[in-house]
Amino acid sequence: MPRPDLKAIGVNYRRIPVMTIGRDIYCDSRIILRKLEEMFPDGALGATTAEGKAIQKFLEIWTVEAGLFVRASQLIPTSMPLLNDPKFTSDREDYSGRSWSKEKIAANRPEALAAIRNAFKFLESTLLADGRNWVLKTDKPTLADIEAIWTFDWLNGLKGALPRELISEKSYPKVFAWIARFNNALRAAKAQAPKAASLDGSTAADRILKASFAEENLQFDPTDPLGLQEGAEVEVFPTDSGSRHRDRGKLIALTGDEVVLSAQVKGTEVRLHFPRTGFRIGAASARGSSRL
Hints:
By secondary structure, this protein is an alpha+beta fold. The protein folds into 2 domains: about 110 residues, 3-Layer(aba) Sandwich (Glutaredoxin); about 150 residues, Up-down Bundle (Glutathione S-transferase Yfyf (Class Pi), Chain A, domain 2), CATH 1.20.1050.10. It has 9 helices and 8 strands. Strand 1 and strand 2 form a beta hairpin.
């Protein structure tokens, strides 16, 4: 922080990535993945069977909601130069709501390491135990692999995070081979993909605000347990991290999976999409929002 490029399109949400398709703005990787699967079915990577969908969803919940990534983040080595920068540690404390002192990180490390080693063991002894290349026994990686792998891949690439005497190719060969295969597949996919254009923030904001909306048929469930009315002024914010940074607007869509706000940026409407899981919707007031 600060993130002027996000502010320029009316986004207070502080986490990344954020995806825009036209003037529809999608906040949080979970809804980004879901929308990409829905809007571009020819390239969809999601499971097609009921069993596969269950495993895929389990891995999403395990990694995010069940706290696997939180434990992984507690393995950031205290030798990182950034931990000597008070601006960085203050920003991380604002984001996470917990101390980022070296002493606190060191104190949390043994318990976090035990949890992560158990996660490696789980994959080694269950989903990857039979020698399959990919989680769903497919011939290429799927969304289930993406949901599962990103925490392990991040830790593997973070120097000093994993003590190699406890977690290594020797102790968990199937997991590390899976990580290597995934990165090889990723490099091959990038080589075949069109080259992405890179825009500065002001150019991107101008393009977004001049675009049309990507979604036409937004849904509103009048039976939602929150009892909110369509058109109500609300605030939406994540409950796990970054909760001090809240987006406010008119509630225009609400389903079991998604909440959508209409907000104004320089007289132009944008729509902010958030997943329901891990986010709170509060009725806005002059002083802020009330918890619902």
